[in-house]
């Protein structure tokens, strides 16, 4: 299986709530640079956090790739979601090529757990960073981090 994990692009520092923060113009540019790494990949699904900035990020990637399936919104991809729950949800989906769009600290902790099997080495994600993992199963310590791109 191949799993791509994308952190949302740069967002406004403030809004009525954290969930309502929107992407900045720079954040939209970052996302489009990261989306270029996904061109030609056989994605089966784009799954995103319900937070506005993640929804905007997923929509930009969806459009840039001309992806035919709608973005799936799930409650288990918010910043404070439990890594083990996310891993269980990924496994339950049964897909081979999947893009997750979410937030720190979840994305760093998830990639670290999948690669190393523990939470002591989270992956260093900046805004719109894109990780590519590969492995037979989406289980802790059983996936290999193939790349981690930071769009700047």
Automatic annotation (TrEMBL):
Gene Ontology MF: a single term: protein histidine phosphatase activity
Gene3D superfamilies: Phosphoglycerate mutase-like (3.40.50.1240)
Any one GO CC term of the record: cytoplasm
InterPro entries named among the record's database cross-references: His_Pase_superF_clade-1, His_PPase_superfam, PGM_Phosphatase, SixA
PANTHER family registered for this protein in UniProt: BROAD-SPECIFICITY PHOSPHATASE YOR283W-RELATED
The name this protein goes by in its record: Phosphohistidine phosphatase SixA
Biological source species: Pseudomonas soli
